[in-house]
UniProtKB/TrEMBL annotation:
It comes from Bifidobacterium mongoliense DSM 21395. This is Branched-chain amino acid transporter AzlC. Coiled coil: none annotated. It comes from the Bacteria. The chain crosses the membrane at residues 12-33, 45-65, 71-92, 131-153, 159-177, 184-203, 209-226.
Length: 234
């Protein structure tokens, strides 16, 4: 049991090393951005600990400097994080028999944690439930630690750095380009871009994200159903 726990921990840590580098940098940037907006390090630390949605945290940091509108915050948070509905559907089976760990796994499932827990092939000697738990906890610690360090370091900087709020946008652009270069078929990427632009033009920036996600899922279900029917006919 001890050997299994250690091998599971080592395997989870190795899988999250790329996330460690990215989250420390992004969390640090977020903490620095919060300080420049007038908040001490406790704000980014506790927001990173309880919200754990990087793009939402950048948005809320900006909203906290204005007249607070809780309904607007709720609506924006739901729109930005609506993709987690699809993550949850994909993870229903994997998280189905995780016992007391299930609330932690659900709360901590960010984009990167979902990517690792949903796609990693666990070798012999590694407990899958423990592995998913370790990945979830480690990724959250990386993010919270980076946010706290950024908030603390912000107090030592005598100058203001412009453009920090663009970090999350730049990250998603890099992820998209990397995925585009690695995939053999560009159907999913092209469909996502076309549908997102169409929904943005039709509905505006407030509602295009959940609508485009729903349309992408419907499109993929139709394509998958068509391939299944084609294979049955053959």
């Amino acid at each position: 049991m001890v050997s299994t726990g250690r091998s599971t921990w080592r395997f989870a840590f190795r899988q999250t090393l790329p996330i460690l580098a990215g989250f420390l940098f992004l969390g640090f940037t977020y903490g620095l951005y919060m300080h420049q907006e007038g908040f001490n390090f406790l704000y980014p630390t506790f927001m990173a600990l309880t919200i754990f949605g990087g793009s939402v945290e950048f948005v809320i940091a900006n909203l906290l400097t204005k007249a607070f509108d809780p309904w607007a915050v709720l609506a924006i948070s739901l729109i930005i994080n609506s993709r987690h509905v699809f993550y949850a559907i994909a993870m229903l089976r994997r998280y189905g028999h995780t016992g007391w760990r299930k609330p932690l796994l659900i709360f901590g499932m960010c984009d990167e944690t979902f990517a690792i827990n949903s796609s990693t092939r666990v070798p012999d000697g590694v407990d899958r439930v423990r592995f998913m738990t370790y990945v979830t906890v480690l990724n959250q610690l990386y993010w919270v630690g980076g946010a706290m360090l950024g908030g603390l370091f912000g107090g030592l900087m005598p100058v203001r750095i412009e453009g920090l709020s663009f970090v999350m946008t730049a990250l998603f652009i890099v992820i998209f380009v990397n995925q585009l270069m690695r995939e053999s078929s560009h159907v999913s990427s092209v469909a996502g871009v076309v549908l997102a632009i169409a929904c943005l033009l039709l509905t505006g920036k407030q509602a295009f994200l959940p609508l485009s996600l729903v349309l992408v899922v419907v499109l993929f279900v139709m394509l998958d159903h068509g391939r299944w029917r084609h294979s049955v006919v053959r």
